[in-house]
Amino acid sequence: MTTPVSTWPRTGFQPGGGRNVFQLFCFSTGPLKGDVPLSASRFGLPAPEAMKLVEVRELTRDMDSTWFDGFRAGSLRGVATQALGDVSALDSATQLTAVLVDREDTADLSHLQAAWATAQWLVARGVSVVLDAQTNRFWKGADVAEWPASRPFSLSIDVNVVVEAEPTSPIANVHTRGLQKFGRPDLVTRDVPGEQWDAVAGLVRALAGQLANGVVLRAGDRVNLDGKSLTLAAYKPAPESDLHLNNEGLLITL
Question: Using 50, 70 and 90 to split pLDDT, how confident is the model at 46?
């Protein structure tokens, strides 16, 4: 399997987090090539045993066409179009290879490296589009293939900070997607005025970085960040809200 790369550490790790859940859905047209070896040094695998953290399932459209086509319809199609521009590769896909991680919380991020290494390996075998289910973000397979095997951890790849507002609304919800990968709740701020979107997104990103690094925060905690005092409460979606985190959440009050 050749030489592994360095493991991504969590230098701020505190026990008490939840399970680290990560799902990648990798789309291809037809079956994948079978003659590409899984090279640790080529694809960024931290250790051969890290593959034990990953489950790989191959599913064809014929198994459940309605479920399969749901990945390229409705709101997901809008997300795909925004990320990919041209969605023809997604439309022509006939196979989905799922890369699944469900790991107890721990002081390293080898499960992320193993999942992305697997995705790069699948791209080399014919995958053209990758959906990160936790961040709700599509990637072109060609872009994933270009990531260096020895790259450091990048918060911007594994956590998505979203400013979510109606087209003409002067206020927005600013929130994260992706912290489930780290066994941590996602972060939400409600009704942020337009002139504060960038600043609040920066605060949310900074706090998300602490959680990804292993810090544990709970409802009722107060956090001082960049000279601001933040209060955390359990996030409870409003019935009329379109904000579905698919994860527990913490509501930030500035």
Answer: very high
pLDDT of residue 2: 64
110 with 135, same domain: the answer is: yes
Nearest residue to 52 (alpha-carbon basis) of 5, 9, 104, 97: 104
Distance, in Å, from the CA atom of 51 to the CA atom of 23, rounded to the nearest integer, reads 14
Whole-model pTM? 0.95
- Using a 10 angstrom Cβ sphere, with 0-12 exposed, 13-18 middle and 19 or more buried, the burial of residue 94 is middle
Point out the domain boundary residue: 92, 127, 153.
153
Rounded CA separation 40/48 (Å): 7
Q: Do 167 and 90 share a domain, yes or no?
A: no
Asked if 150 contacts 143 with a C-beta cutoff of 8 angstroms, the reply is no
For the chain, the first-to-last Cα distance in angstroms comes to 49
